[in-house]
Known about the structure:
Layout: H1 5-10, H2 17-25, E1 32-34, E2 40-42, H3 44-49, E3 57-63, H4 73-86, E4 91-95, H5 100-104, E5 112-113, E6 116-119, H6 121-125, H7 131-151, E7 158-163, E8 167-169, E9 179-181, E10 192-194, E11 196-198, H8 203-210, H9 214-222, E12 225-229, E13 234-236, H10 243-250, E14 257-261, E15 266-269, H11 284-293, E16 296-300, H12 305-320, E17 326-331, H13 333-339, H14 352-372, E18 377-382, H15 389-400, E19 406-409, H16 411-414, H17 420-430, H18 446-457, E20 462-465, H19 467-481, E21 486-489, E22 509-518, E23 523-528, E24 547-548, E25 554-555
Parallel strand pairs: 3-16, 3-17, 4-15, 4-16, 8-11, 17-18, 18-19, 20-22, 21-23
Antiparallel strand pairs: 1-2, 2-14, 5-6, 6-14, 7-12, 9-10, 12-13, 14-15, 22-23, 24-25
Amino acid sequence: xxxxxxxxxxxxxxxxxxxxxxxxxxxxxxxxxxxxxxxxxxxxxxxxxxxxxxxxxxxxxxxxxxxxxxxxxxxxxxxxxxxxxxxxxxxxxxxxxxxxxxxxxxxxxxxxxxxxxxxxxxxxxxxxxxxxxxxxxxxxxxxxxxxxxxxxxxxxxxxxxxxxxxxxxxxxxxxxxxxxxxxxxxxxxxxxxxxxxxxxxxxxxxxxxxxxxxxxxxxxxxxxxxxxxxxxxxxxxxxxxxxxxxxxxxxxxxxxxxxxxxxxxxxxxxxxxxxxxxxxxxxxxxxxxxxxxxxxxxxxxxxxxxxxxxxxxxxxxxxxxxxxxxxxxxxxxxxxxxxxxxxxxxxxxxxxxxxxxxxxxxxxxxxxxxxxxxxxxxxxxxxxxxxxxxxxxxxxxxxxxxxxxxxxxxxxxxxxxxxxxxxxxxxxxxxxxxxxxxxxxxxxxxxxxxxxxxxxxxxxxxxxxxxxxxxxxxxxxxxxxxxxxxxxxxxxxxxxxxxxxxxxxxxxxxxxxxxxxxxxxxxxxxxxxxxxxxxxxxxxxxxxxxxxxxxxxxxxxx
Length: 558
C-alpha cells in the first residue's frame, strides 16, 4: 500500500535548520530565530542588510481553474524548486503558509505531496511558528477596541450601524458568518450585528504580506478604516490608538519562516491569504529575500490564474515592483476532463472528446498570461497512472499549436529528478526578454477596472451591481481611493461567479454583491456571486480522519 504524505514526510532525513541556512544560503546562526531544530525565522535586521544585492529570476507557478480531481500546484512548486537545484541552479522556494480551515476542512494538508513536499509537514500544516495566531489576535484586538470605545462614551461618534471591521478565526465555521454582539445588558456593550471572517481574509493578513518593514507595517495598520461616524466620516485604527499594540503582536510574525524540502533545499514560507477571497500571495518580504539569496525563486499564487496569478500581478507585483520572468501553468488530464463534463468516478477512463472540451479552460488561462500580462509560459502536466498516451498527445498537440511548450512532470513520484525537463524549460524561458503588463491602469476608475478585468480575463460580457453597491463604489472613488487596485472575491471553480460553470464560460455577467475598503493593504475588495469570506466545513471534513496514534504521532493529516 502506498505511503501517505505524512508517512513519507516522517521518514525523511531533515537537516538542522542552522546547518541548512549556513551551507545553502550563507546565513549565520546569529541571523536566525530558531523554532525547534527544523524551522526558523530570518531576523528582520538581516533581511534589511540584503538590500542592494542583485536579485534572481522570479518564476510564478499558477494553474487551471481548480477541480475536485486536484491539480498539484504546491506540489509542482516544490518539485520544480528541487529540480532546479538538481540541474545545478541555486533555487529557493517561496510559498504561503497553510490555513487551519482547509487543513481540517477539505484539503487535509497543504505542503505539497508525495516526494515533493516542504517539511516538517505536520508543524507547517498546524501551528507552525504562530504567524496566523498573531494575525488573528491583532485583528480581534482592533475589533475589541471598537466596541470598547463605543461602550465608554463613543468620543469619536462611531455609528454602530456602520462598523465594517469583522472578527476572525482560523477555522471554517459557517455559523459565525452573521452574529449579534453586545447582548446581556449595558455592562456588555452596545448590541449590534457583526460577523467572523477566516483569518486569511483579514486585511491584517494582507497588510503583513504587503508590508516592507516594521515601520511600513505600523503605518498600514493605522490606515485601516474600521467604521464611519454618524456624519459618514471614516474612523481609522489610528483614531483608536491601537496600531502600535497591533504591531507589537505582529512583530515576530513579520519575519519570514525558513524550512526545507524533502531533498533538503531551502524554502521560505510566509503569509497565506486565499486567492478566492483575498490576494492569494505569500509575503513581499519573503519573496524579495529569496530573490536576494538565490538565482531562481519559485513561488505560487492561489487557485487558478484568473484569481491567484491576476492578483499576484495586479496587486503584489504592481505594489512591490516585482516582475516574474516566466509562468508555469499546472494542469492534469483528469482535471481537464472534469472541465469537459466528466464526473469524478469516470475520470480514470480515456475520454478524448471530454479532454478536448476541457482544454478550453487551460487555453484561456494561457491566453490571459501571455496576451494580457505578457508572460512566457510552460504547461506542467502532472502525471497520473490512469493517463493514456493518446490523451497526452492530444494535449501536447492542442497546446503546442499555441506555441506553448508542455512537459509531463513526475515529481510527485520521483522528486526533483522527475521535473528536470520542466526545470530546463523554465531556465530557457527566463532567458527570454518579456515586459510585464497589467490588466488595467492604476488611473482607471474602480468600476472600469472591474469591467476590464471581467471582460478581458473572465470572458464576461459585463459587470452588474445593485444601486447601493454602485453608490458605495462611487463614494470610494470620490474619497480618493480610485487609484487602488481591486481584489475580486469570487468562486475559484469557474471563470464566472457560478461554481458549476466548468470549462471557459463566456458572455456571463459578474455581479458585485459587496464592496470592502482595505485602506491599509491598499486595495478594494469586490465580493462577487455567492462566495463567502468565512468558509464552512464540508459534509465529511478532513478532521474526521485525523488522530494521534499510541506513540503520539499524528495520522490522517494528508
